[in-house]
Amino acid sequence: MQAAGVEAAVDARSLAVVGIVEVLGHIPRIYGEFRKLVRAAKTRRPDLAILTDSPDFHLRLAKKLHALGVPVVYLIAPQAWAWRQGRVKVMRRTLTRLLCIFPFEEQFFQKQGVPTTFIGHPLARIVKPSLTRAEFLEKYALAPDDRMVVLLPGSRHGEVARHMPYLIDAVKRIQSVARMQAEGKMRFILALPGGFEAKHTTFWEPARAASIQVIEGFTWDCLAYAEIALAASGTVTIEAALLGTPMVTFYRVNALSWRLGRRLVKAPFLSMVNLVAGRRVAVELIQSEMTGERIAAEALRLLNDDGARRKMTADLEEVKQKLWSERDPMEVAAECVEHLLGTPVRF
Predict the structure, then answer these.
(1) Model pLDDT for residues 99-147, shown as the tens digit of each residue
(2) Is residue 80 classed as helix, strand or coil in its secondary structure?
(3) Which residue of 26, 173, 190, 324 is surrounded by the most CB atoms within 10 Å?
């Protein structure tokens, strides 16, 4: 966005904290960034604001912007349909237009009186590998008959730190069974975002000791060519669905955050893939259910059952179709913004 000409008054990376308890130590810094952004809005007086995700931060900002008379477009709806539905009152009062990327959200928010448009999921058009399978195998010294399992512990350092011990335990268990069954060589790939600097994190040595290969910046390729994925619940599960990769999903937070937050969650599922499908497509191993033993058992079930993998692949294709839209979602979003500004847009 900065390369496209956006002037960053606040760096969004400084706000990337997950969990109720985990955020406490960051509140002074986050509040400082909030005040900085409000000052910038008062000084610059924008014609319109586009707020993206981060609802705890941005819905507070929406109140300030609304008070200043700034129209507010919110892109990627807060998950108020799942928990903390009281946020809908703020959205109804402050948002000019809510742009959602999941089909079931439009009906929910429209019923709550929030002007909402489903634009389609942006990833549905862009998720694809950048390398051919042959190029990928050659680049990372993999053999054509290797059975690849991709590990996706999350994109934030805190997520990776919480999840990796359980994933490493699961890998060791799968390796042990694979050796006994002698069913081809198992290769485990830890896929991380580019620039994650895996070599400088505490799990680097344990991962290497467990024969886990670390690949940064090629997550979609890793997903596209893996037999199954072990994926933290989040956007990466949507990416796996779009690439048709069977998966086991999981997630852990601080124990106190879980106890405080679980009572507020009203959604039938925690994985977005299952929410879009409207039924359980992928297993969800959340909090205490996320153990190395359970992850390994579910992974082995998929690895050893061709029918189960085919069934999940078909279900994921259904999810993909639900996320698809006839027009480019970002064109629809831009058109909405231009309409609110009173300037027609041409594509």
Answers:
(1) 999 999 999 999 999 999 999 999 999 999 999 999 999 999 999 999 9
(2) coil
(3) 190
